[in-house]
Design a protein that fits this description.
The structure holds 3 protein chains of 3 kinds. Chain A is an all-alpha fold. Chain A has helices at residues 2-33, 38-45, 52-80, 89-106, 111-140, 144-164, 193-197, 211-228, 230-240, 242-247, 252-267, 272-279, 290-300, 305-327, 332-369. The longest helix of chain A has 38 residues, at 332-369. The radius of gyration of chain A is 23 Å and the shape is globular. Chain B is an alpha/beta fold. Chain B is 44% helix and 18% strand. In chain B, helix 3 (65-80) packs parallel to helix 12, helix 6 (153-167) runs antiparallel to helix 13 and helix 8 runs parallel beside helix 9 (247-257). Chain C has 2 domains: 1-88 and 204-246, P-loop containing nucleotide triphosphate hydrolases (Rossmann fold, 3-Layer(aba) Sandwich); 265-507, P-loop containing nucleotide triphosphate hydrolases (Rossmann fold, 3-Layer(aba) Sandwich), CATH 3.40.50. Chain C has a 6-stranded mixed beta sheet, sandwiched between helices. A 6-stranded mixed beta sheet of chain C has the order 18-21-22-15-23-24, with helices on both faces. Chain C has a 4-stranded antiparallel beta sheet with strand order 2-1-4-5, covered by helices on one side. The longest helix of chain C is centred in the middle third of the chain and has 16 residues, at 183-198. Chain C starts with 14 loop residues before the first strand and ends in an 8-residue tail after the last helix. The chains are: A mainly alpha, B alpha/beta, C alpha/beta. The B-C interface holds B 2, 4-5 and C 358-360, 407.
Chain lengths: 379, 355, 515
């Protein structure tokens, strides 16, 4: 068995290497067509700057991007694990973000309690917003893909209305609006000490968002929940084989509701790294689309927390590379092609290696079963 | 979900490999072994003036707002010998702040942020780089080293409204906006006021392509087309758009709607920036928002040693906004337009900024 | 066996199958099948479920290729690689489960996949004329412009037949066409078949409903255990004789053994009724299962067995009646609660209800036991204990696998089934519901599973055994019921039962209370 695991690892490694190589071939073709040089492009992608400070800044930028993507991937994956397509993460996180930012802006509490309240408000709001499609599915048989897409539109418009209307706060100058700013007790301390621990300089600006640590914690909790608990087993069983889960005593209604609400609660956290770490309010410039990106991140990470973390880092790495590539005179549209090519190749390679590994496993099992049958089984 | 067991390893190893490569490269840069960053390497060829410009979502090629800004940048290149670098943000605009930082890090000064969406980010970044001069288009100054470049869109739109009302044969016109933000509402407010002042009983259809904050509405020609098609079918014969790249769809709808259907462009002289001849033909006029002038004047002033901290307003008085005359479709109503323009300049008419 | 058709073999039979053999890994599905179908007749092929009828039809329709043997159509030898080849040879298939697009009209459905084109455009006018002509010629009344979703079952079947005719079929295969029809519709179908026959078409009619077969067929071929055992004319046989042919002349004799049946009722069904849609699929079923007793349920598939099991497992609600477990009424309990109370379940389709194919064996051990030790420890899944217990099952039940981390899908059917039986026997169940526990497994695994069931019975387990395998039923059961159209129609003693009785009850040839 151990040797089998080793073999599997070698196979996946080979697949990953081939995927990256292929992605670079496809991207290079696109770059050459656009009149650039693939070598320059590669250099640009991996160019994190010349000084230690620049590298720290670049890494910070990447991690700050990866944090919400990771949480988004987790939120989507919880549903995907049981074949529940929560496309509504987009709407859930926006509605949760604005409500949490507004509530946080109204309160004056000691910092730890203040932050806990904001986080809880976000999770409850996201969970409640996800409860709607869950109830519709369980009691009315409404497909969750349809209902969550529709609820996304509602959430987007509602957030746009709230930020300009009832939840608007402070300055009326300018063209942007936002909720009232969070007091200092509602701002998450940065995590620059992580760099300082290694004797590196602190990044500039708002630094490394401290919410990264919360995200890691959430990742670990979700991993434990999905991989180690009865609840996680039932979620996975429902996803792998619904009728078998039903026959094993899993209550499908209860599972749909709890998985959907959990997914929505985690989705509620997606906007918090930005709000608690940099903007300290929900404004018109709030980063959109993270819920949809979360779908790609979850697929790439194969719905496993560790895989999602790595997928989020890959996405963040590619997003960060967008600017250096433009510095290298690669048109921004080619940057999107490169990103798409890498994701596509990784997914293809993953699927191919998975199939090869399955076939190998079947062969091994067949070889194991070919041993002579013990006599006298027949009673 | 057929990806249970082996996927994790695949992605693990892949991302591991990528991260290792990242570390290796970052480390290499650290020792100073590599050459200067590609963007900076061709600097110094001109006057030593390095101008950075960050586009709004939609980016270069929208034949409208962003392209107008770029025209100003290019003019700085030819007339002032500036070394220029322009960047487009990610589709969701999440790296606006990072782009400004990267331009500053690469030694660009001044740096122009195109679009009011940069306002919160610029506030932070400008404070981080007090030695760099910034400008922001469509927003007021947010720091001692930030110059605000604002435009009286409502005034130019008022003239567009006068032109549309004077030219319509069906007494029915339309307006297609991008996201329903305060900025785009300025266009709507001016347009409606101008049209109503000319023909009080005129029918005006208003449609926005997205909610406030939905910057994708600037990049959705399909949505623009559907919205405009509906208006033309309902009897409107002139549709004004303030929707960036989405305006392409409005023009297509006008061209497809048949004879005597017109569209009014925005920001740039779109009868010239649009490539397709059949679309050029249906553009009645464009509400010019001289972002190019604003950008160029800012660069020029900066070169002369001007510092930021104040907001420059471009209105009708300084020809910061106006109507284009390409195609000469407005000559019969030019007198009406000029009269309105004079009244605005003289203060006789105050154009509202909100609908 | 009477082989009357052999004597009059004309030069050009419509279909002639000669020595058809088809093997699947570990199983021989068809063995030396010989059938001759005369043109312009309705030829019935009868046999029990699992006798090999559907494999044979798949071969004739080009969906599978025989390992041995020859197929001749209208006297010419043919080789079918795909159903397309069969269609070109004039063979059409009307499937038991209709393959129609609900949101298209009758006409659109008929032309779907064989669209008439004129200058590259769909030519519905020609198609409409052709459809009208076919419907007229064969008396198949349908409105070409109605949506299929608005049609009843009988109409849909006519659409399927028209679809086949439209593609030029002269030989029609109808797979259990009456299974979904009510009696009047059956009469209509038979009228249509007679019209088709009069029009010179040949119909191959697959069924196990003997009275219908005797009513409509011109010739009958009986299949048992994958091979043709008799070709008879309807006038020469009775329903009882046909049933006997289907089931076999000899039934297996039960193993001599001591009865372990106690008088303690573990599972009791009292007037259990289940409805599906507006039909009653299980009707007032009452019987006890005692500790140490194996209760067998025989019947042709689709007569309510699935619903019976689903009702006991809490997967389908009862319309009436109640179910007791050790004298406690469990009718309203959830599936989980029933399982925790000691009902174990070997499902009829292990891939559908029994396994997580893409999960390792030890996780499959957890399935259905996730609320009980050793799989559970507080809110956690106890991985170590689950693995260890899976290793125990692998050893005790002789599951051939490289390790307990192997994915379930890598195992052969027999080993998968042994794992399921081992799992369900874990945790001291009080009653075992076993549905077709040895279906599709090799002989070795079969006898091993039978051995385990006997041992469990001897240890006092109450077993409800639903099966289509008469060897299994007679070999294991202490009490044998026959289910027919959702009702228990006979209570038989497995050591006394005759093939005639069993076949008669199963096919409805003998009515209730007529021993």
């Amino acid at each position: 068995m151990r040797s089998a695991a080793l073999q599997r690892a070698a196979l996946t490694l080979a697949g990953a290497v081939v995927a990256v190589l292929l992605a670079f071939v496809v991207s290079s073709a696109a770059i050459v067509i656009a009149g650039g040089s693939p070598v320059t492009a590669l250099q640009a992608m991996f160019d994190f700057g010349e000084t230690t400070v620049a590298v720290v800044n670049a890494v910070t930028q990447m991690l700050n991007r990866a944090t919400p993507l990771f949480i988004a991937g987790l939120a989507v994956a919880i549903g995907f694990r049981m074949n529940l397509f929560n496309i509504g993460v987009e709407g859930q996180y926006r509605i949760a973000a604005i409500v949490a930012a507004f509530v946080g802006g109204q309160l004056a509490l000691p910092a730890p309690i203040h932050l806990t309240v904001i986080i809880l408000v976000a999770m409850v709001t996201g969970g409640l917003y996800a409860l709607v499609p869950a109830m519709l599915k369980v009691y009315r048989g409404v497909n969750e893909v349809i209902s969550t897409i529709m609820l996304n539109f509602i959430a987007l418009s509602m957030a746009a209305y709230l930020v300009r209307g009832p939840f608007a706060g402070g300055q009326e100058e300018g063209l942007t609006t936002s909720t009232p700013p969070l007091p200092p007790s509602g701002q998450f301390p940065n995590a620059n000490f992580l760099f300082q621990m290694f004797g590196l300089p602190a990044p500039r600006g708002t630094g490394l968002w401290g919410f990264l640590l919360v995200a890691v914690l959430v990742g670990v909790v979700i991993w434990v929940l999905l991989e180690r608990t009865r609840f996680g087993f039932e979620i996975r069983a429902s996803g792998l084989n619904g009728p078998a889960a039903l026959a094993s005593g899993v209550n499908p209604r209860q599972m749909v509701i709890s998985a959907m609400v959990l997914s929505g609660a985690v989705a509620g956290l997606i906007g918090l790294p930005e709000i608690l770490g940099r903007t300290y309010s929900y404004g018109t410039g709030f980063t959109p689309q993270l819920g949809f990106l979360g779908i790609a991140v979850a697929l790439l990470g194969r719905n496993k927390p560790l895989g999602i973390a790595l997928a989020a880092l890959l996405f963040a790495f590619l997003d960060r590379a967008a600017t250096p590539l433009q510095f290298a005179d690669i048109p921004p549209s080619v940057v999107s092609i490169i990103q798409g090519a890498i994701v596509l190749m990784v997914v293809i390679a993953g699927e191919v290696t998975r199939r090869i590994a399955l076939r190998q496993e079947e062969r091994r099992a067949a070889a194991g079963a070919a041993a002579p049958a013990p006599a006298g089984v027949n009673a | 979900m057929l990806r249970k067991r082996f996927g994790r390893l695949a992605v693990t190893t892949l991302a591991g490999a990528m991260l290792m490569a990242v570390t290796a490269c970052g480390g290499g840069g650290d020792t100073g072994a590599t050459s200067a960053s590609p963007g900076a390497s061709d600097a110094g060829a001109g006057s030593g003036l390095k101008v950075g410009l960050a586009f709004d979502v939609g980016g270069r090629g929208d034949k409208s707002f962003n392209d107008s800004a770029y025209a100003g940048l290019e003019r700085a290149k030819t007339e002032l010998g500036a070394d220029i670098r322009e960047l487009s943000p990610a589709g969701d605009g999440s790296n606006r702040g990072a782009m400004l930082q990267q331009l500053a890090d690469a030694g660009y000064n001044p740096i122009i942020a195109v679009g009011f969406a940069y306002e919160p980010e610029l506030k932070t970044v400008a404070a981080e780089y007090p030695d760099v001069q910034f400008a922001i288009v469509d927003a007021g100054s947010v720091g001692p080293n930030v110059t605000g470049l604002t435009f009286a869109e409502q005034q130019g739109s008022y003239l567009a409204g006068v032109a549309a009302a004077a030219k319509t044969k069906t007494n029915h016109i339309g307006f297609v906006g991008g996201p329903e933000s305060k900025l785009i509402q300025k266009f709507e407010a001016g347009y409606v006021a101008g049209a109503k002042a000319t023909k009080p009983d005129i029918k005006i259809d208003i449609s926005y392509l997205g909610a406030d904050g939905d910057f994708a509405a600037f990049k959705a020609p399909d949505k623009g087309k559907i919205a405009a098609e509906k208006m033309y079918q309902a009897g409107a014969d002139i549709v004004y758009h303030a929707s960036g790249d989405s305006g392409q769809g409005v023009f297509q709808a006008a061209a497809a709607a048949g004879a005597d259907k017109w569209a009014i462009g925005v920001d740039s002289d779109q009868a010239q920036t649009v490539k397709e001849p059949e679309l050029q033909k249906i553009i009645l006029t464009s509400m010019l928002k001289r972002v190019d002038n604003g950008v160029f004047e800012f660069i020029k002033a900066n070169k002369g040693g001007a510092k930021g901290g104040q907001t420059v307003a471009y209105d009708l008085k300084v020809d910061g906004v106006g109507l284009s005359t390409t195609g000469d479709h407005l000559s019969d109503v030019q007198a009406q337009i000029d009269e309105a323009k004079q009244k605005i300049i003289s203060g006789e008419i105050t154009v509202p900024e909100t609908p | 066996m009477s082989t009357s058709s052999e004597t009059l073999k004309p030069a050009r039979s419509a279909v002639e199958l000669e020595g058809i053999t088809k093997r699947f890994p570990g199983v021989v599905a068809n063995h030396d099948v010989r059938i001759t179908v005369e043109p312009g007749t309705v030829h019935a092929i009868v046999g029990e479920n699992g006798a090999g009828k559907s494999t044979l039809m798949k071969i004739l329709y080009g969906m599978q290729r025989p390992d041995e043997g020859r197929i001749r159509v209208n006297g010419e030898e043919v080789v079918f690689r795909t159903p397309g080849d069969a269609i070109r040879a004039g063979i059409g298939m009307v499937h038991q489960h209709f393959m129609l697009a609900d949101n298209l009209t009758v006409l659109e459905n008929v032309v779907l996949g064989a669209e008439p084109k004129k200058a590259g455009r769909l030519d519905l006018a020609t198609a409409r004329a052709r459809l009208a002509e076919l419907a007229e010629a064969h008396g198949l009344r349908v409105d070409p412009d109605r949506l299929v979703e608005d049609l009843g079952v009988g109409d849909r079947q006519r659409v399927e037949i028209l679809k086949v005719l439209y593609r030029g079929a002269r030989i029609l295969i109808l797979d259990e066409p009456t299974a979904v029809l009510v009696p009047q519709e059956v009469q209509e179908l038979f009228a249509n078949l007679r019209e088709l026959k009069a029009g010179g078409l040949t119909v191959i009619f697959i069924s196990h409903k003997l009275d219908e077969v005797l009513h409509i067929a011109d010739a009958i071929t009986v299949i048992r255990r994958g091979t043709t055992v008799a070709s008879v004319l309807p006038g020469d046989v009775t329903a009882r004789r046909l049933a006997e042919l289907m089931v076999g002349s000899e039934l297996p004799t039960p193993q001599t053994r001591e009865s372990t049946v106690t008088d303690r009722v573990v599972l009791g069904l009292h007037g259990v009724t289940v409805t599906g849609g507006d039909r009653t699929v299980l009707s007032e079923v009452t019987f006890p299962v005692r500790a140490g007793e194996v209760v067998g349920v025989a019947g042709v598939e689709g007569n309510g067995q699935t619903e019976l099991i689903a009702a006991i497992m809490g997967l389908r609600p009862l319309a009436a009646g109640r179910i007791t477990l050790a004298e406690e009424d469990v009718s309203t309990w959830s599936t989980r609660r029933r399982r925790e109370a000691g009902i174990a379940y070997v499902p009829e389709d292990r891939h559908r209800e029994g396994l997580l194919l893409e999960a390792p064996l030890w996780e499959n051990r957890v399935l259905g036991h996730q609320t009980r030790p050793p799989a559970r420890r507080g809110p956690w899944i106890d991985r170590a204990a689950s693995r260890k217990d899976t290793e125990r099952i692998v050893a005790e039940y002789d599951v051939r696998t490289p390790s307990v981390d192997t994915l379930a899908l890598a195992l052969s059917g027999g080993n998968q089934q042994k794992l399921i039986v081992g799992r369900e026997m874990s945790g001291d169940p009080k009653v075992l519901i076993a549905a077709h526990p040895t279906r599709g497994v090799d002989v070795g695994a079969q006898s091993a599973i039978w051995g385990h069931l006997r041992d469990a019975r001897a240890a006092g387990l109450a077993v409800l055994l639903v099966s289509a395998d008469l060897d299994e039923l007679i070999g294991l059961s202490d009490t044998l019921y026959v289910i027919y159209r959702g009702r228990f129609v006979a209570d038989l003693d497995p050591s006394q039962v005759t093939p005639e009785q069993l076949g008669g009850y199963m096919t409805g040839a003998i009515a209730k209370d007529q021993p």
